[in-house]
Amino acid sequence: MSSPTGKPTPLYHLYRGVTAAIAPIAWASVARKLRKAGVSTERQQERLGAASLPRPPGQLVWFHGASVGESLSVLTLITRMGERLPGTEFLITSGTPTSAELIAKRLPPRTRHQFAPLDVHGPVGRFYNHWRPEAGIFVESEIWPQMLVKGRERGTRLALLNARLSDKSVEGWKKRPKTARFLLDQFRLMLTQNDKTAQNLLDMGADPARVKPGTNLKATSAPLPVDELALARIRGEIGDRPLWIASSTHAGEEETVLAAHKELLKSDPDLLLLLIPRHPDRGEEVKRLVGQAGLTCAQRSTGQALAPDTQVYLADTLGETGTWYALCPLVFMGGSLLKIGGHNPFEPAQAGAAVITGPGYYNFRETFDPLIAQGGAVEVTDAASLAEAVSHWLTNSPALKAACAAARTCVQDQANALDDVVETLIKALELE
């Protein structure tokens, strides 16, 4: 495959200068957030490119994802690639304490995690000096100019995986075509989630020979972990009460969910809502909303147990979503009632659940469209239609079972593409 030929543009040089100037401010902000999250001083230094682990001998493949969703989506891929390349070691980097905590619990064999360096000359140089990865795979929309350019200069073979760019981002890059082309030219391969993203990359100036439609990696991720002890305990507290789940809700959405639940309680006073905010630190805020809606609440983070008269169980904790999905085959996915973009529906589908979504799932359109078409998900627009959808599946067991089966089939269809992704990466990045 041909190597990049574009030259750095004035805008790229400007970016280097600006990032160098603001690096102390950026580092102070990053360090403060890491300290607040309880990250050790040694690990904080990883953001400055100072590794806290030794480089393993042999071939090292590096994956980078910004946050929880991006990072977790590649763990199954790393596992499969590790089986295919038994002598290869792996590094995964991310930027947030939450992602680090969750990744640490699910690291594949021969894999280690580090915080990604700030995209500044010094930290990036130290990172590459230590790790010397043979290949670097950037996940979703993580286009960091200096990480890309310095990596290619040092011989790291680069790929953009599961590529997804917002329309706003694409339009912005189109106004800077030379710089967009220069940065995209650092990649040997750009493997996209869908045809639209492939076309967007081409419109931005990507080499057509390097752009290939792929699949959504989140569809191939391993199922979320389940705490069997916690699951048994909560099942005992719920008993035979009917239940539905609203997961990954954002500010401005809980009001709609709670209004739907109040409507459902009119016909089934025993019904329980398990409410999972996308950001657990909003727990107190969401609890107040439950109270303002006139509903009783038990809050997971404070250790409150479910009582027979509890109407909403607020699951405001981190890392337990898989346990909650194992409780119930009916899940509303948040981030979709407002213009947020939606969240990954394959996580509940993998657990055997049918999915309800609002209309704003545009970041996961390639995932939701087949799921809806096959009957594994339905779309709602407001509290009334949400209540109607929940009621339909709660009172029609055959319909719910059919929807769950359709969701599982859709997930399996997507997961079968994982081997193709592995082989494509191995070939393009010359890993064998």
Automatic annotation (TrEMBL):
Keywords: Cell membrane, Glycosyltransferase, Lipopolysaccharide biosynthesis, Membrane, Transferase
Site annotation Transition state stabilizer: residues: E140, K218
Keyword Cytoplasm: no
Sequence intervals crossing the membrane: none
Pathway: Bacterial outer membrane biogenesis; LPS core biosynthesis
Source organism, top-level taxon: Bacteria
Catalytic activity: lipid IVA (E. coli) + CMP-3-deoxy-beta-D-manno-octulosonate = alpha-Kdo-(2->6)-lipid IVA (E. coli) + CMP + H(+)
InterPro entries, sorted: Glycos_transf_N, Glycos_transf_N_sf, Kdotransferase
Catalytic machinery residues: E70
This enzyme's EC code(s): 2.4.99.12
Gene3D superfamilies per the UniProt record, alphabetical: 3-Deoxy-D-manno-octulosonic-acid transferase, N-terminal domain (3.40.50.11720), Glycogen Phosphorylase B (3.40.50.2000)
Function statement: Involved in lipopolysaccharide (LPS) biosynthesis. Catalyzes the transfer of 3-deoxy-D-manno-octulosonate (Kdo) residue(s) from CMP-Kdo to lipid IV(A), the tetraacyldisaccharide-1,4'-bisphosphate precursor of lipid A.
PANTHER family (UniProt xref): 3-DEOXY-D-MANNO-OCTULOSONIC ACID TRANSFERASE, MITOCHONDRIAL-RELATED, 3-DEOXY-MANNO-OCTULOSONATE CYTIDYLYLTRANSFERASE
Family per similarity comment: Belongs to the glycosyltransferase group 1 family. Glycosyltransferase 30 subfamily.
Name of this protein: 3-deoxy-D-manno-octulosonic acid transferase
